């Protein structure tokens, strides 16, 4: 009833209006400008200019001002003064000083008001990129952020950090806020085996995104309190705002993924050992492939061509080296999106539907996503707006096994001898598996892709409602409340005779997770006299998070290939809950003095149910100051330095413990030894419980981050050259974490406020426009980030913490060292750091070779980069635009465990130069041995004494040796006992992250308003010293222990073509 | 009308905000939410006991203590990857992490909790069983590691995060004290809560008592190089109250739902073959246990891989140690008989030694094969004069599948086994290194050792 009345009132108002027309031209070239928004100020009434720059707008009686705005041009307000024809000229503006950015809890501020760094990423670099997960598209688009994807698999997780690591073992990923609603975005540690799973940020449709504000430092996020210790991405979706006519947009693209870099393999030697072909042998130290042929033995079931025998003794069919990488296929992605949006003075809406279907480069790897979104607002009166956002996502994925796992795709693929053709069948008629180990060892990759699967289904709904009430011109209230909920259901299937589950395996898991959030803000803003402006916000937040999983498995299938939990006598079931709530009050005060000085103060008090009763509450303040020094007398209206601002801020933010960490519990028992899948309960008809090995702690307190930041913004030559520099220092104290402790305490970990870490960094952004002309523009954006993360202190008695990896190597946090140091075995060295080369003819180890120092694990490298730089060049010529992003990562090492293990199996390229002949005296026969096979290790002669300590001669090694089977079965590989240090490979890169060419096709008819076609490429060029797969991957997915490559699934390069049409 | 509406909305909005804000903290921050609804804060003893026993079998008879020491003793051979490295005498601190980090919390800590619960609930039979399990575990572990944390261990809840190590001598004293306590508990006339959930002895306090005496005999004999003849007399005294038949054997069962650890290793890793030394020894006497100890190789023969040779065509471990549902054997009646045989022999009781030796072999053959095999015993064992070499050789065969052979070898040097091919150190290791995690998190207290550093009783 009330609503109808409002409509009637508004309709009445519309009746009495004046028609105003005009033409908009550009000051730069005098050309008319189509698509300019013309709005009657104070209303939502407006129009867009047509192809000739003409507009017609019906202004209500009494309207005073028209507002003309267009992206890339300065906003212009013109008084109507009774005119009915108003022509205007717009000036171009390369980067909007008056740009409004969304800051914490949805508070809008003009960029010039901010005392801290906020970077915005616009829709054009998100929508047209071949990334299902929009986080991937952020890579290189802002300083201070780092994006790592776990693998090239369709649907793979991404790891995003802002200003480096803030937590040592906890979550380091930022908060995602969509239209005021904090959503679930993270992913889980996938471990060193299993499958790569998605990050929940993949549930967002990139086409729906209007812009993303990247809130980096403490002052920017302080209002989120315990929620945004790691920075925040404030995402605004598209809406019907500022539209005059209905907009129907359709986009469609097709992309092709291809295998990126892979480890190089030798193609000279056959399966076997000691130069002898042995069918089923794990290694490739057999004879030369060129010297072998098949015997045609039809009874040899492992190879349809028979066994391999020396040339001349078989059937004449020569042995060949098969290409294992033919296993991979071209991935194909189809992405379609349709949206309808509009807005008027009654309200706005944006409705979209999208569908993405991605077939990965690994056979049967698949990711599919369908999304719906409806954002609507309704103006109930001049002063009251209500709105609702609704988003639904459905996704399905099939993921394939990876990593340190007898079923890992790459593990089976690159350990397989070149003389064995995995593709010639993976399953015998009796259901048994065909693989290069004659049924033992590892799964045939084709078996893995076809007989083992991980299927995941997600249904996700995010719904928010919002209310805005403008009580007076200076006081308004906004309230956003919503629910983000998803159901994730997945199942694992292992066919009978899979190596990890010889009797077959099946599990089903159901995950139900969600958050409820409400933010009420009361905003006050008023000019105080001529010089001061005051903005005050007070607010309340309540938040609840809940999660529940239900799990059941069937070990040992009775009926083959039938996946039903009841198809087994051995079932385990379990379920778990995670639930907590927080509440907060907060305030934000902004005081501006003219356009010169901006002071910001915030404070927030949080309460959380996860903290012990004595420490439920904590308070976090921040202060920031912006000083636009170009407003000072002498500098004002300067043609060279158009704008300059200094900013400084200090803040304290926080993080809370996860639920249930304040006490100890018993858990369903089970046993495993690290070698096998182990045993569980029920067992012998009993159920069993054991005391959890992790100790809770009733004395926890909040962890805090004290940060400060200074920055400088400079804009030269009327914004043709813009520079933004920040320096920050974050001190994280009382970091909450589960600290590993000596097992002899009876426990293996304790939850503690355990560490102190500092990150300091420099962020530089440069935006330059060297060429601006009527037809041609050239723009360069450079982002540079250098962050030093140092672990200052760990809890008393804790010297280091495990972040990820294996028993060896491990990524660790160590007091006094950089975050992400890798620990493992090194070569035996003398006190000067020279590698010792054995010179003791009496020991059992060959002279002329180095060996590992098994006495202790040392810091053998750091996975964190020295710095990151991204350079984006954009050229536009008439409607054609070419943009490319070059991504440079300097420094950081990665563990090439894949290559090091391949050495042991004799499949890596490094093992190709193995041919060696010896004289009767036992020295290398240089006449027979190929010269290129001779190696002299870099080091000095030495050996160990009776106590195992190094004895160095100090004399440089000159002994020639050959890297033969004995070397690679020994210290030249991991399984042979070689040092991990030999597998730590520099993993910096220069890559063409993406390149995009688009053409706005001029359209004349009125039906189609806009047509753009584009082609995009991703990762087309990669230059890296890393000799394994694309180093931008991580074994354990999106977790803190980065830099591990142990049979990771490889990365991809992508080509995509698409079109965008507006009707 | 419009003004009216705005006033209403204003009133409603402000009121709502106010109410929500005020009411939020008290009720919303409900601290009882921080109690995990899915995990109990306490459990009854009959649910703790089988959990401990499962770990006892899977960890203490599992792949680390048995496959590694069995490989060094050439009962097995490691033919690929990590096991190949171990076969050539490289065992790093990181390699024993899983083992060390499993038995301390899962077995020892939980048994300690169980024993304390039992004592507070006047149920000495539970306490006795828990103590026998502690002693069994501690015994196996100290024979591999020497000095270990014990008196200062298990105090994580009291914030003792870096326990001091007890000398092995003290550990042995503790071990005997615990066993005497167990014997006292198990002899108790009163017991409030009856044993239940016991998968090892079917809730029989009497059998646990025999196990207590037998484990005591095992470790009393272990001190032969320390205590001389007293070790033998003490061992004999304890053995007198120990196992009296194969029916008393101390074993952890497995079934179709929960498979034997060595079976799982062979199924999922497979890098172990039979050792050449054990196979050759058994082939020489056509030992009837061979088809149970080993599977035939691809050519239909029983073959072993010579130590360190990595011969993956050799026979795989057979059903006795690696059958899917074969029990994990902690200690047998046969082993007790060999303890008696050695003790009698050393004390010069040749008749008793001979009897115990013959009984030991007979018990083992019956246990492994399910048949008495009297003819074979008569041909190869009975009446053959028991020398120390013979006793130890037969004990080596009979204890296949647990780590006693490695303990006996260090004590007696028998049976003599050659150094493995490609060995990276000159002689067989004489201990395990300490676990990397103990070194990492309790470094100051961990003795500095290599795998060639002898433990206390190894003289």
Keywords:
A: mainly beta, Immunoglobulin-like, 57 strands, globular, disordered N terminus, B: mainly alpha, two-stranded antiparallel sheet, 20 helices
Describe the structure.
- The complex is a heterodimer of chains A (1063) and B (459).
- Chain A has 1063 residues and is mainly beta.
- Chain A has a domain of 89 residues: Immunoglobulin-like, CATH 2.60.40.
- Helix content of chain A is 5%, strand content 48%.
- In chain A, the strands form 13 sheets. Chain A has a 22-stranded antiparallel β-barrel.
- In chain A, a hairpin with a 4-residue loop joins strand 37 and strand 38.
- In chain A, helix 5 packs antiparallel against helix 6.
- The longest helix of chain A is centred in the N-terminal third of the chain and has 14 residues.
- The N terminus of chain A is likely disordered.
- In chain B, helix 2 runs parallel beside helix 6, helix 10 packs antiparallel against helix 15 and helix 15 runs antiparallel to helix 18.
- Chain B has 459 residues and is an all-alpha fold.
- In chain B, strands 1-3 form a two-stranded antiparallel sheet. In chain B, strands 2-4 form a two-stranded antiparallel sheet.
- Chain B has 20 helices and four strands.
- Chain B has one domain: Serine Threonine Protein Phosphatase 5, Tetratricopeptide repeat, CATH 1.25.40.390.
- The model of chain B has no long low-confidence stretch (mean pLDDT 93).
- Helix content of chain B is 55%, strand content 3%.
- At the A-B interface, helix 1, strand 24, strand 26, strand 27 and strand 28 of A face helix 1, helix 2, helix 4, helix 5 and helix 11 of B.
Describe the secondary-structure layout.
The complex is a heterodimer of chains A (1063) and B (459).
Chain A: H1 2-15, E1 17-26, E2 37-40, E3 46-48, E4 54-60, E5 65-69, E6 76-79, E7 88-90, E8 100-102, E9 108-110, E10 118-122, H2 124-127, H3 134-138, E11 145-149, E12 158-162, E13 175-178, E14 181-183, E15 209-215, H4 218-221, E16 232-237, E17 247-259, E18 292-294, E19 308-310, E20 331-344, E21 347-359, E22 366-379, E23 384-399, H5 409-415, H6 445-451, E24 452-472, E25 475-494, E26 505-528, E27 532-555, E28 570-593, E29 597-608, E30 617-627, E31 641-655, E32 666-668, E33 670-671, E34 679-680, E35 689-691, E36 694-695, E37 703-716, E38 721-740, E39 749-772, E40 776-794, E41 800-805, E42 810-814, E43 821-827, E44 836-838, E45 852-862, E46 867-877, E47 880-890, E48 893-896, H7 897-905, E49 934-935, E50 940-944, E51 950-956, E52 961-962, H8 965-968, E53 984-986, E54 989-1001, E55 1010-1023, E56 1044-1045, E57 1052-1062
Parallel strand pairs in A: 1-7, 13-16, 36-39, 44-50, 48-56
Antiparallel strand pairs in A: 1-4, 2-3, 2-5, 5-6, 8-9, 10-15, 11-12, 13-14, 15-16, 17-20, 17-57, 18-19, 20-21, 21-22, 22-23, 23-24, 24-25, 25-26, 26-27, 27-28, 28-29, 29-30, 30-31, 31-37, 32-35, 33-34, 37-38, 38-39, 39-40, 40-46, 41-42, 42-43, 43-45, 46-47, 47-54, 48-53, 49-52, 50-51, 54-55, 55-57
Helix pairs in contact in A: 5-6
Chain B: H1 2-28, H2 45-60, H3 63-72, E1 76-78, H4 81-87, H5 97-120, H6 124-145, H7 168-186, H8 205-222, H9 224-227, H10 229-239, E2 250-252, H11 261-268, E3 272-274, H12 276-284, H13 290-293, H14 319-322, E4 328-331, H15 333-346, H16 350-369, H17 374-380, H18 388-398, H19 404-412, H20 436-442
Antiparallel strand pairs in B: 1-3, 2-4
Helix pairs in contact in B: 2-5, 2-6, 5-6, 6-7, 6-8, 7-8, 8-10, 8-15, 10-15, 15-16, 15-18, 16-18, 18-19
